[in-house]
Amino acid sequence: MIQYSLKCADGHSFDSWFQSAAAFDKLAAAGMVACAVCGSTQVKKAIMAPRVRPGRKAVSGVGEAEPQTASAPRPAPVPALASAAAGPGLLSRPSGEVEKALAELRKKVEENSDYVGSNFVREARAMHLGEAPERAIHGEAKLEDARELIEEGVPVLPLPFRSGRKSN
Question: How does DSSP assign 120-147, residue by residue?
């Protein structure tokens, strides 16, 4: 697996994983790699910084390496998608108006509501039935559970981002 920083003809930057360099070339030539922002299939590799892990002694002095925070490699969906919550570096800063608006929305949601994690469905239903005090909440729900809430008349709205918090 290889991760590339990509750029479309309109200047939008994003990144994606590919099985190999040859796989990227083949998919790009076939027009199957699209910009995550505008959908353009005129996508080229952008300049990237190499990923270099520090030596074990440089990290802790005890011989243990620092845990990695990047997610494990996975095949890229086509069109390639940009991550609003990417790790440290260029991709972690919003680059376009849409990304800036999403970052602002995420900040407002997290500041003005309680994170309930995987208890979202239970909490939302309890508030709707009057069994719990009403308040603004956000968390995770399976698609089928969210549909059930909507069918029951519980006012829910999917968010265009994942929470950065852990529920455990």
Answer: HHHHHHHHHTTSS----EEE---HHHHH
87 pLDDT higher than 80: no
Does residue 62 carry a pLDDT above 50?
A: no
Alpha-carbon distance of 134 to 127, in angstroms, equals 5
| 100 SS3 class | helix
CA distance 60 to 158: 41
Specify the higher pLDDT residue, 159 or 75: 159
Q: What single letter denotes the amino acid at residue 63?
A: G
| Torsion angles phi and psi, residue 102, rounded to 5 | -65, -40
Which of 143, 150, 161, 163 has the alpha carbon at shortest distance from 124?
150
Of residues 161, 152, 157, the one with CA closest to residue 137: 157
Whether this model's pTM surpasses 0.90: no
| Residue pLDDT, tens place only, 108-127 | 988 999 999 899 999 999 99
Helical spans, DSSP H, in the chain: 21-29, 56-59, 97-112, 120-128, 143-151
In the predicted model, what is the mean pLDDT of residues 22-27? 90
